[in-house]
Automatic annotation (TrEMBL):
Residues in Aminotransferase class I/classII large domain copies: 40-427
Keywords attached to this entry: Aminotransferase, Pyridoxal phosphate, Transferase
SUPFAM superfamilies named among the record's database cross-references: PLP-dependent transferases
Organism: Vanrija albida
Protein name per the record: Aminotransferase class I/classII large domain-containing protein
Family of this protein: Belongs to the class-I pyridoxal-phosphate-dependent aminotransferase family.
Required cofactor names: pyridoxal 5'-phosphate
Length: 440
């Protein structure tokens, strides 16, 4: 359909949302005869599989019908929720009062909005770069592109459990301003996601301290997207650093731990000096975060700790079951896992089976072809690792050091939180069916 007006080039240049592309494989399978005996299994999206705690549901309906919840609220969110979240974070990170206060916490309309807002605050378009490990969460890559900020991709080596290379990051920061695509860009931030989407890799406290020290040395913020922090104990010790506010920015989400993704609540924990700047952007983007969910959750957070712990234990048990099931299938191997995700290597031998995977003879076999056949013919919808990397012919690869292993494009992301153990158990025969189709 044609338009009688223009679309901004940055939007045109940004990849379309990838999940619908993978979801489209499901109906192809559903229309096949196999679907009548073996149902479609959807492990594509990192969403919670169970309803919020009954007390949360009751409080949501109680507040949804009030005049108060219908009014605008504060830009940075309800004072009561900010106070309550600050207390939860002190508990989670093991720090005392003063180390993290209400004034350090802003509520946003989801963590994705927190990230985009932050880019607007930190990065001048066309002159900035951001250090970001690859594989990368696709919405981060898309947000950078929308803001005309160059990604300085840091390889997360599969042989190192997908931990990003500190040495490569140091080299980017030491170089400083760099000429990229005809423009001089300067590094403005380091972004890490832990537990990671897509790989599940969870960086230990010591590793995160090294990244923090690097960020501090080069006077850039360390932005941690901790959307999945409710699925690890004591994620790191950085909030105990007396000067953490000068360097650390931690993003959070209520979507996963509290299982309310549709209510759109996230958070930025950072220096009040940064939150002051963030308010300028948030005033235009959100005016206030959704009030019903804030009012509902604020008094409940302390009593939901047990629920979060149970949810985390259930997901951890499912990850173990998943590893047992997948590793038992010849050629398949769980390369890393954590939080909601497992990153799985498909059999090496698939590389020589282009025709069986619906590709032209001799064509390169990548994760997208494998995930498509797994979806369309075996009824398991996942996201290929290719969705979390630049296209293999993108010139950006020339600027990523030691990226050969990643370019093998041999991994598929399984989201395991939104399915039951019964579904996980059905995966073995499905992967065996794929092996049979491919002939390995
Ligand atoms: C790393 C990461 N950040 C942010 C989000 C989005 O979180 P929210 O629902 O709070 O916007 C997701 C959701 O999948 C995610 O995986």
């Amino acid at each position: 359909m044609s338009l009688r007006y223009a679309i901004a080039p940055a939007v045109r240049a940004t990849a379309a949302p990838p999940i619908p592309k993978a979801k489209a494989w499901g109906p192809v399978y559903a229309a096949s005869s196999a679907a009548s005996t073996a149902p479609l299994l959807d492990l594509s999206q990192g969403v919670p599989g169970t309803a919020p705690h009954p007390r949360v549901l009751a409080a949501l309906s109680e507040h949804a019908g009030t005049f108060e919840a219908a009014k605008y609220g504060s830009i940075h969110g309800e004072g009561a929720l900010r106070t309550a979240l600050a207390a939860e974070l002190r508990e989670k990170y093991g720090v005392g009062p003063g180390a993290l206060e209400q004034a350090d916490v802003g509520i946003t309309t989801g963590c994705n909005m927190a990230f985009l807002t932050l880019l607007m605050v930190l990065c001048e378009p066309h002159t900035s770069s951001v250090l970001i490990p690859v594989p990368a969460y696709f919405n981060h890559a898309m947000s950078l592109s929308l803001q005309s900020v160059e990604p300085a991709y840091i390889p997360a080596d599969p042989a190192q459990g997908f931990r990003p290379s500190l040495a490569a990051a140091r080299a980017v920061l030491e170089q400083g301003a760099a000429r990229v695509n005809g423009r001089d860009v300067t590094p403005r931030a380091i972004v890490l996601v832990t537990p990671n989407n897509p790989t599940g890799a969870t960086y230990d406290g010591e590793t995160l301290k090294q990244w923090y020290d690097l960020a501090k040395e080069f006077r850039v913020p360390l932005v941690l997207d901790e959307t999945y922090r409710d699925f690890v104990d004591a994620p790191h010790g950085l909030f105990a650093e007396p000067d953490w506010r000068e360097t650390l920015i931690s993003l959070g989400s209520f979507s996963k731990g509290y299982r309310v993704p549709g209510h759109r609540l996230g958070s930025i924990t950072a220096s009040p000096a940064l939150l002051h700047e963030v308010a300028t952007v948030l005033d235009c983007m959100q005016i206030c975060p959704p009030r019903t969910a804030q009012l509902a959750l604020a008094p409940l957070l302390p009593e939901l700790r047990g629920d979060l712990a149970e949810g985390s234990a259930a997901v951890a048990a499912r990850r173990r079951l998943f590893e047992d099931v997948v590793n038992a299938v010849p050629g398949w191997h769980v390369a890393s896992s954590g939080g909601y995700f497992a990153y799985v290597r498909f059999p090496e031998a698939y590389g020589a089976r282009a025709a069986e995977l619906g590709l032209a003879q001799g064509e390169r076999v990548g994760s997208e072809a494998v995930a498509r056949v797994l979806g369309e013919r075996c009824g398991v919808v996942t996201l290929p690792g290719a969705f979390f990397m630049p296209a293999l012919d993108d010139p950006v690869w020339a600027r990523i050091p030691d990226a050969e292993a990643l370019r093998a494009d041999q991994w598929i992301r399984f989201a395991i939180a939104n399915v039951s153990d019964e579904v996980i158990k059905q995966l073995g025969p499905r992967l065996e069916k794929l092996n049979a189709i491919v002939g390995v």
